[in-house]
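Quick check before the chapter quiz. The format below is the same one you will see on the exam, so make sure you can read both the input and the output lines.
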Amino acid sequence: PVLVTFHTGHTLLGLQTSFIVGLANGTLVKWNTASRSGERFVVGPTHAKSEPSNPFDASLIPGQPRPRGDLFGATICREFFQGHDAPPRFMGFVNRCSEMLYSLDESNQLRLWSYDPSHFSGFGWYVPSERFTLDLRSVAFNADRNAPVDVLFPPPGVSVPSEPKPGTVIHDDLAGPTDDEILELYLDFLLLQEQELASVKELGLQDRPWLVKEMERGRYMEIYAPRDFPVDGPAQHQ
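Here is the expected output.
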C-alpha cells in the first residue's frame, strides 16, 4: 500500500465503514469494514457483484452483493478498481461526499471512477468512466519579496557610470553615414555615370542593339556593334 483515503458513505449511525487503498502496482481496493457487521447504509452501498478469492487466506469465502433496495450491508469485503499502471499519488472524491472518485498516478494518468454498478466489469473489478493524461511539466513560480536579490551585473570591481561627463564626445562605430557623406557619395556616382556615358559615346556604336540575349530571372543583355557593322545581324557572318 502507498496511499489510503476514506470512501464516501452515509450510514444510519454516521460511521465511516469503507476506505480506499492504493497499491504500488496501481490497483485501487475499496475495503468494506462493515461488510459482515450488518451496518445499515443510506448512501454508498456495495455495488460489486462478486469478490475474488484471496490466495493468502484460503479460509476466506468470497462474499455476495447486497440485494437492491436492501439497507443491510453486503458480505463483500473487497472491491477492486483497475485502471492505473503506476503507483497512485492522489485519491479523492468530488466535494468529499459524492460517489465520483478521482485518482492520479506517478505517470500523470488521471482516472475518474463512477461508483456505479454500470462500471463493474465482467472481470470482477471496476473500470474508469473517464481517462486523461495530464501535462505537469509546466511550472509556475511565485516571487518571494523577502528573498535576497543576487546582483549579477556589474561584476565585483567594475563600476558603470549612470551618464557621461559634460563635454564627452561619444563615437558610435555602428552609426550610419551623415547627410553630408550621403550627398558626397551621390555626387561621386553622378560624375562616374557621366564619365561612363562619354566613354561609350566615343566607341561609335549603333543606336539599336546588335544582339539581345535573355538571361536568368527575366533579365536581358544587349550587345551593341560598331556603326560600320552590318545591321542584318550576325547571321551574315556565320
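If your answer matched, good. The chain is about 10% helix and 20% strand.
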